[in-house]
Amino acid sequence: MTVSAAVRLEGKRTGPQWSTDGSRIYKDQYRVITSGDDVTGDLVEKASGLPRRNASHPRDGGALVTNIKPEQQAATVWFVRVTWKSKHGDPETNDGGGVDDPLSRPAKFRWEKVDYEETRSKDIDGKPFHNTLGQPLPNPPKFPVTQLRLIVTRNQATYDPAEAFSYGNRVNSDGFLGQKPQTAKMDLPTAIEQVENGISFWSVTYSIEFKEDGWNPVKLPNEGLEYTPPGESTGVRKAMDDDFGATTGEWGLLTEFSKKMPAGQDPFMLEFRVYKSKAFGPLGLL
């Protein structure tokens, strides 16, 4: 049994609907595709992209999910109606006369800077670090690099370690905070269980680090101890040698076709995807 990620239906969003006491109601509708009519509503309710019960509304931290209603429309199609409701009174202080509910408090945000050292093959103008003979310098310079990290802490009614693992060490597959996909990387969300005013909840912390050039793909120069001689197929290899044919025993740059890279040319860069991707939007952090 499989369940697809939920898709919010355009034009099906309503709210806020205000009451005279200051409370608000929001409603959204989603579509979920399943593998067949043997899938139950309980499984549909857990589909990726659906808000979780007691999760805050993305535009109103004082409104929490109070109802998730899956309705089967066809053998493999479900519509899911989600309702958020706020407590009475002010959304931040919840001073409508009731007990202060820690789950109604808005999330807290903090920005930090992260310092690194980075080795680069070119300067900002695209000029490679080569000597006057066009050869790569043996010790390319390292540069200080500063990046931003966003820390979000919010109270949640539940903390699911399996869901936390699914976000840990992932990069964004969707746009996030105005940044492109693959530019934000999330650490494993952590949580502390707390009790206030007789209410049990989890204080969950999300740490997201941004990288202007993106986390995927990682680019490395194509290098090897051997190369394919000119006119030979890729299955034929020869130990790396110098311009006079003497074996060097050192790593050398290779072309896209595993030939020895001519002196003075830029290295052919290989690209590797090292981080799995996941949409950050369904978390409703912002």
Element layout with pairings:
Layout: E1 7-8, E2 14-18, E3 24-33, H1 41-45, E4 56-57, E5 60-72, E6 77-86, E7 108-119, E8 142-156, H2 161-167, E9 170-172, E10 184-186, E11 190-196, E12 199-210, E13 218-221, E14 223-224, E15 226-227, E16 238-239, E17 252-253, E18 269-272, E19 276-278
Parallel strand pairs: 9-19
Antiparallel strand pairs: 1-3, 2-3, 3-6, 4-5, 5-6, 7-8, 8-12, 9-10, 10-12, 11-12, 13-18, 14-17, 15-16
In brief:
With 286 residues, this protein is mainly beta.
Description:
Strands 7, 8, 9, 10, 11, 12 and 19 form a seven-stranded mixed sheet that branches. Helices cover 4% and strands 40% of the residues. It folds into two domains: 7-100, no CATH class; 108-216 and 275-283, no CATH class. The protein has helices at 41-45, 161-167; strands at residues 7-8, 14-18, 24-33, 56-57, 60-72, 77-86, 108-119, 142-156, 170-172, 184-186, 190-196, 199-210, 218-221, 223-224, 226-227, 238-239, 252-253, 269-272, 276-278. It has 286 residues and is mainly beta. It has two helices and 19 strands.
